[in-house]
């Protein structure tokens, strides 16, 4: 962020809470030695969170996703390494925990930093590169300079993926990987590093994790095969002697003792390998497997192999007796101990944190969040306690007060591109990249209906009218489609073919007579939903990413890749104003408050900005996102702003109350559009605008073409029970609909009566819009 954005009266948005955790990094969740804070990566930022108050601090300095992280034994330093593009250097940064500043950094690795580790005395930082690098770097923390570097693997050894520092010897550490296990010693004076390969005999394993006992005598290694290698390091009892007295060697390859009888030659291995391993001070091992199994095991004496039935065909010997066990449903990437080893915190690859009681092994889900990019966020109508988010594989409903997940709707292997609540709050509408529009119940997540093949290249945007009977969808092929929807029948009304590229956003005005669609082909189109045709088209030298109607429906606000915020007049489609929304990245999301005084934007610059709509200036900014911002929404009570990002994190910001207090009366009036639309006052904008721009009003035709209740003579009988010119297939099939509509036409003011009368007719046709 530039200094110009901080100048003037620009305030800072206050964070109410953050929902986010990246569990894909091995050993990515670390408890600080003070046991008050936890440290973990979130996108390209390092997050320091107070475990009690949930307050968070973000350390910014990386340019790409963080792939490795470690905290020093004293708690003074944090080290992090990142991923970069092919051919570019990957950065390693050392942070000061107290001041949250960068102490030193280097770019001596290529493409990826696989793992980092501090020495036990905080003097050295060891780091290894990924497959494209293959080098080891020893960094002097106190001097802020590199000591030496070396190739990690040699000969037929594979890449190294794990690193572990010793507990009593500062210059000593271990590296492990695919058919690789070595003990290293740093010679600071000679600026060299020496290695000794561990003798494993005929055992060939890909080692994923390691842990060593407190006296540097024995090391336990978890393998991708699902067994445990026990290594004797053969160090001298004097910790000042750094070179092992004998060559390090393998004691054995152990697996757990099966509870059931297995065929001869078979052993019980951990499914999907051992991802995390911790040795407790008392001796037992804590093992986290790839299938989500967490077990506390102890080593027993190995029985002789004289009996033929006890012999195994693989070198793994069943000597680990399970003491306690639990399951967390996904691969365990981090295991941390706190409260004097009485509580276990387990981080999983599904971005969940479980708290496990060591005594009873009872598991409690402590933190959960999305595992990938969140594409959309939505609030129910006039209800601010919950909101929904759409991401890959699932749609989730969250509590804005507790930040806890209330409901998860899963559709495996597909991504939800858009989510919204129906106006009556009885359904959650979702758009998926498999081309299906799905509707779910908001309490149980049960599927109400699914519109198959809604768009042949995936559904990219959704919007629904206030009555809830007409759905407008946008697809990746560029088409905009209107649907007549009820819980029992969904039918295509028309297909609007104008866009040549994917439709990125769709929004409907309050009257339900118009819709605006934004596309990446550089056009925004205002559609006439009554006549089912194009009304206006706006061109721009940009890829439009978002578009929203102003609350009074007189203007449309758009944003796109040209970093500009454009004000468009709905009456004739002319450009009124253009404001620079960002200096460095595209605008991906925007939303306008209910009173129209302020709006919020977010984009690739990872900055949330709050704007004054009339003045076109930024009043507040929010910093904290670790990836591009993908969606933003005001809560209906205008107390909070929810933004989502490409890293899967959700930020809940407090909306400045001084910006909305003068308009409390106006918000309350606009919260009930049916009553406002039924008023006969001359100040009602929603009622006046459609007829003033329509062709019928110019020709003097007195027929009602608006979808809102008004004082003009209805034409419902002429249109098959629909007051807006949209033919209803249900009304055609049943001539009784006209009679029932006339009976129910006197209860238009209540939204509940709209849905109930529609159900009596067998479809939500338009009895609520009957005049």
UniProtKB/TrEMBL annotation:
It holds the Pfam family WD40. Signal peptide: none annotated. InterPro entries: WD40/YVTN_repeat-like_dom_sf, WD40_repeat_CS, WD40_repeat_dom_sf, WD40_rpt, WD_repeat_EMAP. Keywords: Cell projection, Cilium, Cytoplasm, Flagellum, Repeat, WD repeat. The keyword Thylakoid does not apply. GO terms for cellular component: axoneme; motile cilium. Gene3D superfamilies: YVTN repeat-like/Quinoprotein amine dehydrogenase. WD repeats lie at residues 367-408, 452-485, 496-529, 580-612, 622-654. Residues 745-771 have a biased composition (Low complexity). It comes from Tribolium castaneum. Its main location: other. This is Cilia- and flagella-associated protein 52.
């Amino acid at each position: 962020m530039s200094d110009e954005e901080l100048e003037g009266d620009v305030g800072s948005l206050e964070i109410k809470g953050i929902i986010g955790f990246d569990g894909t990094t091995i050993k990515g969740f670390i408890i600080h030695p003070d046991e008050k804070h936890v440290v973990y990566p979130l996108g390209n930022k390092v997050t320091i969170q107070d475990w009690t108050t949930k307050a968070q601090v973000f350390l910014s300095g990386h340019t790409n996703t963080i792939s490795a992280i470690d905290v020093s034994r004293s708690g003074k330093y944090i080290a992090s390494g990142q991923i970069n593009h092919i051919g570019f250097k990957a950065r390693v940064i050392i942070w000061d925990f107290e001041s949250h500043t960068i102490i030193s950094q280097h770019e001596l690795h290529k493409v990826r930093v696989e793992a980092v580790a501090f020495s036990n005395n905080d003097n050295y930082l060891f780091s290894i590169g990924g497959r494209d690098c293959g080098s080891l770097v020893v960094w002097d923390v106190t001097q802020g300079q590199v000591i030496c570097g070396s190739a990690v693997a040699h000969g037929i050894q594979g890449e190294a993926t794990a690193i572990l520092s010793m507990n009593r010897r500062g210059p000593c550490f271990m590296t492990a990987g695919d058919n690789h296990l070595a003990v290293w010693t740093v010679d600071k004076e000679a600026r060299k590093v020496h290695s000794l390969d561990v003798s494993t005999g005929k055992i060939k394993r890909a080692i994923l994790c390691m842990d060593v006992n407190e006296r540097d005598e024995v090391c336990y290694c978890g393998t991708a095969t699902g067994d445990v290698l026990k290594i004797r390091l053969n160090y001298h009892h004097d910790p000042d002697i750094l070179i092992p007295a004998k060559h390090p060697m393998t004691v054995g390859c152990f697996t757990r003792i099966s509870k059931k009888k297995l065929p001869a030659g078979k052993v019980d291995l951990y499914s999907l390998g051992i991802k995390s391993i911790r040795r407790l001070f008392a001796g037992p091992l804590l093992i986290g497997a790839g299938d989500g199994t967490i077990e506390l095991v102890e080593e027993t004496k190995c029985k002789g192999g004289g009996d033929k039935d006890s012999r195994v065909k693989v070198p793994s010997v069943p000597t680990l007796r399970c003491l306690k066990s639990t399951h967390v449903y996904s691969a365990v990437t981090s295991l941390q101990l706190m409260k004097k080893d009485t509580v276990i915190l387990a981080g999983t690859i599904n971005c969940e944190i479980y708290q496990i009681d060591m005594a009873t092994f009872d598991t409690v889900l402590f933190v959960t969040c999305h595992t990938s990019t969140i594409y959309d966020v939505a609030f129910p109508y006039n209800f601010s306690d919950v909101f929904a988010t759409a991401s890959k594989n699932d749609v989730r409903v969250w509590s804005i007060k507790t930040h806890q997940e209330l409901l998860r709707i899963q559709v495996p292997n597909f991504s939800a591109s858009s989510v919204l609540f129906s106006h009556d709050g009885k359904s959650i509408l979702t758009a998926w990249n498999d081309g299906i529009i799905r509707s779910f119940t908001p309490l149980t997540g049960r599927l109400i209906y699914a519109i198959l093949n809604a768009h042949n290249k995936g559904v990219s945007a959704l919007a629904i009218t206030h009555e809830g009977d007409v759905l407008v969808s946008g697809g990746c092929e560029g088409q905009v489609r209107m649907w007549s929807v009820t819980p029992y029948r969904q039918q295509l009304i028309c297909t609007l073919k104008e866009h040549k590229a994917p439709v990125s956003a769709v929004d409907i005005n309050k009257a339900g007579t118009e819709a605006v669609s934004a596309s990446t082909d550089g056009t925004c189109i205002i559609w006439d939903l009554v006549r089912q045709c194009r009304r206006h088209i706006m061109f721009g030298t940009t890829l439009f990413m978002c578009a929203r109607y102003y609350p009074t429906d007189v203007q449309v606000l758009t944003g796109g890749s040209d970093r500009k915020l454009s004000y468009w007049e709905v009456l004739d489609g002319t450009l009124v104003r253009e404001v620079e929304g960002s200096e460095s990245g595209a605008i991906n999301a925007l939303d306008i408050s209910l009173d129209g005084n302020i709006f919020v934007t977010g984009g690739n610059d990872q900055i949330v900005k709050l704007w004054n709509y009339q003045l076109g200036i930024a009043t507040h900014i929010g910093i904290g996102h670790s990836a591009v911002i993908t969606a933003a929404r005001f809560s209906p009570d205008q107390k909070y702003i929810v933004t989502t990002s490409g890293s899967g994190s959700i930020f809940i910001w407090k909306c400045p109350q001084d910006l909305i207090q003068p308009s409390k009366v106006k918000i309350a009036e606009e919260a009930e559009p049916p009553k406002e639309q039924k008023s006969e006052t001359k100040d009602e904008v929603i009622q006046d605008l459609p007829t003033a721009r329509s062709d019928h009003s110019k020709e003097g035709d007195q027929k009602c073409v608006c979808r809102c209740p008004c004082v003009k003579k209805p034409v419902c009988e002429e249109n098959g029970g629909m007051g807006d010119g949209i033919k209803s297939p249900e009304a055609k099939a049943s001539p009784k609909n006209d009679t029932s509509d006339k009976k129910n036409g006197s209860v238009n003011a209540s939204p509940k009566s709209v849905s109930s009368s529609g159900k009596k007719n067998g479809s939500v046709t338009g009895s609520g819009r009957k005049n």
